[in-house]
Structure formats: C-alpha cells, structure tokens
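Appendix B. Chain record.
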Amino acid sequence: MDEAYAVPNFELAEELIARGADSARIAISPQDSPESQSRKYSQVTTGKQLVPSSPFDFKQSIVIVLPTYNERANLEALVRAIRQYLVTDILIVDDNSPDGTGELADQLSYQHRHIHVLHRTKKEGLGPAYLAGFAWALQRNYGFIIEMDCDFSHAPWDLPRLVHRCQTADLVIGSRYVPGGGTENWDARRRFVSRCGNTYVSLFLGSPLHDWTGGFRCYRRELLTRLSLSTVRAKGYIFQVELAWRAVQLGADVDELPIRFCDRIEGQSKLGWQSIAEALVEVPKMYLLSLNSR
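Structure tokens predicted for this chain:
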C-alpha cells in the first residue's frame, strides 16, 4: 500500500489503482508529452503523496468550481495544492461565510490571475452554489468544469486523472465504491449513511452507477449545457444525484474513477439531517419523472 510507482501513462496508473495502489504514490510521466522528460516527482515532508515538479497541462480550458462556507482554514492550502498538480482556473463560490472565507478568497484572486471569486449573499445549499458556479463557467470559454470540495476530502493529486478520463467521457465521477476506491477516517455512522444513501438511490433509479452521491466530478461543457440546469430542484447533497440522473437519462457517457475519500481535517462537515430528508423525498420524485418520460 505504501509502495511508489513510476508509470508511463494514465492507463497503467488506473490498473494499479484498481488493484489497491494509492494514487498519491504514483508518478505519471506520459511518454508522448513534451514535458515528460522534465517532470520529476518528489515526496512532501508532511505527507506520503508525490508532487510533480510541474503541474499537468492538458492545453484545454479547465475551471474548478469550489463552493465555500466557513472554509478559511482550508482554502489557501487547497488552492496552492491544486496548482501543484493541474494547470486550471479556480472559481471560489462563497456563500457569505462569517469566518472571512470570502475576504481571503478576494485576497487570493488579487494575487493570482487564475483565481476568481463569486460572492453570494447567503447560504442556500450546495446545489444553488454549484449552479451559480456552472452558470459563471458556461458564460466563459471553459471546456471542462470540475466539482471539488474545499476540505481536502478530494485529493488534489487525483485531478489530472479526472481530466484525463474526461477526454473520452461526458461526465467522470470520482467513486468510492468501484475497485480501488474507498473512504478514510470515516466513523461507522458516516459509512452507514453513505452506503444506505447510494443503495436507496439505486433502488429507485437503477444501478448504472456505484457512487451516485460523489461530489468530485468533471463535466464536459457540452453535457452541462444539455442538463437544463435552470430546472434543477435539489439544494443539498442530493443535487449530485439529480445531475447524475439527468446525465444518465440523456444517454451521456458517464464514467467512474476510483478515489479515496478522506474525511475533513479542519472545520465541520456540512452533511445534516436536512440533506438526508431531502434525499428521501426527491429521489422518488425523480423515479416518477422518469416513468412519465417513457
């Protein structure tokens, strides 16, 4: 589990990860990349992950939509980590955080031209924050739009894998429940809620996906424009289910990429009983809508 690997392409990396290798310990240097000879990896002193000497540059327009509410303790470190692994723009969508996250986001945007900030007047839930970020991105020339949590639950070193897989898919979901995926530092309650949630969704909507609720995603622009975002109903974490369900209904190519989801270190989880109650109500509605559309 702690061994490090050097591989010449993403495909070999995915084979190792599906067999249990840690994606943080894999150095990927594509042979067909002009920078492959110059990219070296080193290990950070505070962790086990390998860090490339230069970030992956796919020569495509990419933006990461990063919703924040009271994430001041994580924001600057995450932004710095993202840029170690991927050449991308970052849109911070702040819901008027009382801890000053929005002010810090503004400071970062003044210092770095690839960082943008969208201020919202109040906290309305994950869904509306992402929808506002998607609308902002679609008004600009981004070909790939990424969802990512701001608490290091989603590993920055998995970003190049996500973008690479999306070259051949409409939507890629970082999945905890495919071979090679998993969770770390979760208590029994969190595991139970997550497993039951995905089982509940699959009972109503079928089982084309293993991780309906995963929030580490890469969308192709063309798919987002087809999802009728103005009619999305969900506000909490069920928002992820609704967008994945809409993509499946459209016949989109949805792929799952194994990731290890690590519980946050700083701050408090935003998952509450209100989100669970919303899921209990909204998922059957999606099922009924799918019956009416046949």
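Further analysis of this model is presented in Appendix C.
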